[in-house]
Amino acid sequence: MKVTYIYHSGFFVEMENVCFLFDYYKGTIPDHVPEKPLVVFVSHRHGDHYNPKIFELAQEGKGVHYVIPKDVPYKRELDMYEKKGVPLAEYITVVRRNETQSLALPNGVTVDMEMLASTDEGVAYLLKCEGKTVYHAGDLNLWVWREESKQYNHNMQANYFRELNKLKDMKIDAAFVPLDPRQGEDAFGGLEAFMEYARPEKVYPMHCWKKYSIIRQFLDKHPEYAGQIVKIEREGQEFLQ
Ligand SMILES: [Zn+2]
């Protein structure tokens, strides 16, 4: 598969017979051929994970499908595109946390989706397709903050590890996991726990707010993960795996 880093938590994944676009909000979306359906995933409604511009792709007639949690505001777009003759509602699958759904695409490809409960809003996606497993965390992370109460951080730990347990010893081909420099000394906790629980082939750190040096810092502390953690350095970077 080919993975293109777009921006922040936005990635484009090209598989054998299908493409995935995750959490696009800005940057350049790679071109894709119409023969491969494109599935656009939104983890939650926050501005750094969702941009209604994604629906413009539906106008291009390239077999675009959308997977969207129910609290994402897209109703206005439905009306807007309906008026333009684009039956957007037909292309949208609405998902909820803690459920599984199968997405059957017109070319015969099936995407099995499990939606984990984010510790922020919305969902994390665990996808099985073409014999591969792809995980995009959205904002499911160990959001521990020094300035928060003990109780808040304690609940955060409990909620995060409850979801991580669902990935225990799971072989994941490509995982997209937050690594957020704003958390200061607590920034590594979420990814460290993920590395201990799951068995990822490749991990793409995200939500770095363009401070990609945090990836190098993480690897300085954890050289044992050098073969797994992908060193993202700039937008538009492509990775073959
Ligand atoms: Zn975010």
Structure overview:
With 241 residues, the protein is α/β, with parallel strands linked by helices. The protein has one domain: Metallo-beta-lactamase, Chain A. It is built from four helices and 13 strands. The chain is globular, with a radius of gyration of 17 Å. It starts with a strand and ends with a strand. The mean pLDDT is 96. The structure holds zinc ion. Zinc ion is lined by residues 46, 48-49, 139, 207.
Task: Give the helix/strand layout.
Elements: E1 2-7, E2 10-14, E3 19-22, E4 38-41, E5 64-69, H1 75-83, E6 92-95, E7 99-104, E8 110-117, E9 123-129, E10 132-136, H2 150-164, E11 171-178, H3 189-197, E12 199-206, H4 213-221, E13 238-240
Parallel strand pairs: 3-4, 4-5, 5-6, 10-11, 11-12
Antiparallel strand pairs: 1-2, 1-13, 2-3, 7-8, 8-9, 9-10
The structure holds zinc ion.
Number of strands: 13
List low-pLDDT spans: none
- In terms of structural class, how would the helical and strand content be classed? alpha/beta
Principal-axes geometry comes out as globular
Q: Write the CATH homologous superfamily.
A: Ribonuclease Z/Hydroxyacylglutathione hydrolase-like
Question: Which series of helices and strands comes N to C?
Answer: EEEEEHEEEEEHEHEHE
- Give the amount of beta strand, in percent: 25-35%
The helix content, as a percent range, equals 10-25%
Q: What gap, in angstroms, lies between the N and C termini?
A: 6 Å
The CATH architecture designation is: 4-Layer Sandwich
The CATH class assignment is: Alpha Beta
- Counting structural domains, the number is 1
How are the strands ordered across the major sheet?
6-5-4-3-2-1-13
Bound molecules: zinc ion
CATH fold description: Metallo-beta-lactamase, Chain A
- Profile the largest sheet: 7 strands, mixed
